[in-house]
Amino acid sequence: MKDKHITEILDKASMAALSEGELNEVRAHVLECMSCRGAYEAARVSAVVMKSRAETMIEPSPFFQTRVMAALREQQAVESVPAMLRLWRSAKALVSAMAVTTAALAVVSFMQPSQTTLVAEPASAYSAYSVIMDRDADEQTSYEQVLSTIYEDDDDAR
Amino acid sequence: MDFDLARQAQDGDESAFAEIVRRYSPRVFSVASRFFRQRTLVEEAAQEVFLKAYTQLGSFEGRGSLEGWLTRIATNTCLNIVRGAKRRPEYTVSDLTDDEQSWLEHQSAGDGGEPASVENSLVATDLADRLLSVLSPEDQQALLMIDGEQASIKEVAEATGWSESKVKVRAFRARKKVREAMEKLLSYKSGRVSG
Predict the structure, then answer these.
(1) Whole-model pTM over 0.95
(2) Which of A149, B69, B117, B172 has the fewest CB atoms inside 10 Å of its own CB, making it the most exposed?
(3) Are residues A61 and B43, on separate chains, in Cβ contact within 8 Å?
């Protein structure tokens, strides 16, 4: 009997449920079998921690009953609303946002003046004369001053 | 008595359902406490159990006790919650806290026995959770009920709805896995495993 390893006995039932005969068999075997001694120790300590874990119980608080009844009423209130209405309520924000966006896009598309197409306008001659004449209008330059400025430009160009 | 209470609650008598909650919340909490250690999680699970029970009151035919019926709903509800949660990876001895390591040394020296103080009990409970985390929620349930609460195979079968042979297989597998994990920890502590 001592030659038979005892791990199967250890695994088949809790330590507390092992019979006296099985416990004696285990104890006799572990005196001579090193590997089974480790298994027995582990099973013994595991039984202690499992028992300790099972004793960790949380008691209901005095408000738990009230909490459950409130949750139940809330659930019933939700269920009493027709499904389509519930769907509409949940989707209302999304639908509103989409409508506003669509309206905004419509306004942008139709109200903004159409973009001017690039029509090739004849290139305006950008001459010293026109510049001077423009300036003339603003600054009331005299004809003589214009002529002298033109001739000055010609001199500079040379 | 239970059957009448259930029928009254089903017919919309709020006070009857409130009485069911008052009477059986300790039982539902004890089931939820097997799965969760944080009060908030236990309360959330227990509330879900009662709300589910309310919608299923019609299926309670009064053949068994209302407590047994609620226990099964509680067990299955908690199992569903735990199944949805992410499992922790397998721990190693380096993950153990100093308290856990010294508690194990104390136990392996053979002078431990039962965890006497509150602190020791907490350390043992933490260790149990570490060991249980390597098991499936179903195997955890079977092992905790049988090895922790000394429940019979039949009681576990009734609480879970599993067959007795299924309970035995689950408990055997879980016990073996936990023992092997514990053996590794103890071997490491006594220096039998190097590296």
Answers:
(1) no
(2) B117
(3) yes
Q: Please tell me the total count of domains within chain A.
A: 2
Cβ–Cβ below 8 Å for B50 and A45: no
- Whether residue B50 and residue A68 make contact (CB cut-off 8 A), yes or no, is yes
> Domain range for residue A142?
129-157
Q: Could you read off the pLDDT of B125-137 as tens digits, one per residue?
A: 988 988 898 899 9
Q: Read out DSSP for B79-91?
A: HHHHHHSPPPPPP
Structure-token pair, residue B148? 């922790």
* Mutation target vs B (from A5, A8, A15, A46; most B CBs, 10 A cutoff): A46
CATH fold of B2-84:
Rna Polymerase Sigma Factor; Chain: A (1.10.1740)
- ipTM greater than cut 0.90: no
Q: Is the dihedral of CA B81, B86, B92, B94 positive or negative?
A: negative
- Indicate the SS3 state at residue B178: helix
In chain B, which segments carry CATH 1.10.10? 93-189
Nearest by CB to B183, which of A39, A53, A61? A39
Please identify, in words, the CATH class of the domain defined by B93-189.
mainly alpha
